[in-house]
Amino acid sequence: MEGIRIEGLRKRYGSGDTAVDALKGVDMAVAPGEVVGLIGPSGSGKSTLLKCLGAVIEPSAGRMTLGGEAIYDEGWKIRDLRALRRDRIGFVFQAPYLIPFLDVTDNVALLPMLAGRPNAEARKRARELLEALDVGHRARAMPSQLSGGEQQRVAIARALVSRPPVILADEPTAPLDSERALGVIRILDRMAQEYDTAIIVVTHDEKIIPTFRRLYHIRDGRTYEEAGEGRALG
Ligand SMILES: Nc1ncnc2c1ncn2[C@@H]1O[C@H](COP(=O)(O)OP(=O)(O)OP(=O)(O)O)[C@@H](O)[C@H]1O
Ligand SMILES: [Mg+2]
């Protein structure tokens, strides 16, 4: 299958007496165009899993494939992990982490510009995405002039601008009220379908959990899959 596939993934932090086995054999699959929820108690390994998949930290064992290509198989299979992160993975965090002295357009266009794309092309693509996310009218504003929900939509545009096949979102709706939280999920769902992106959303948010069609629970370093309610997003 294309998309994301994780098999038998393990992560041990540290060694000896103080070692922590954060992931003890995680299995997960997400198809292109699909948004799945990942839920579990604090300390269960959710962020660890996203960091492994995002090549921010190195797993201890197991296998991960992206778009049918093994990126990790008992060791990294990709030499340039920075390029992997830049070109194939988009991150959305709980806080938007926008750069305060760049306007909204340049916050979104920055990564492709740094990657060597012509500035005009990067800004054009940024503005298209901002339009699609209903913040096009704020394209020239500075981040401090935006509401929390608008800032989070800009952060989503930034994650999508390189059209990565994978988006990893860690508590993307935590600071938002329920209307805006559902709005963020609606947008991720639409973007997944439009760009064939595989999206994993880590959440504690009771408001959005019923919207997932498929959910993974993580408990004590292991994942359990279940069908979600898939409540219509309207
Ligand atoms: N850098 C680290 N060094 C050692 N242990 C760590 C490190 N990062 C996380 N852990 C431990 O690994 C386990 C999983 O942590 P992780 O951050 O993945 O949990 P989480 O599910 O994201 O929790 P939360 O919902 O609180 O964000 C926890 O026991 C945590 O203390
Ligand atoms: Mg976490």
From TrEMBL:
One of its GO terms (cellular component) is plasma membrane. Keywords: ATP-binding, Cell membrane, Membrane, Nucleotide-binding, Transport. The keyword Methyltransferase does not apply. GO terms for molecular function: ATP binding; ATP hydrolysis activity; transmembrane transporter activity. This is ABC transporter ATP-binding protein YvcR. It comes from Thauera chlorobenzoica.
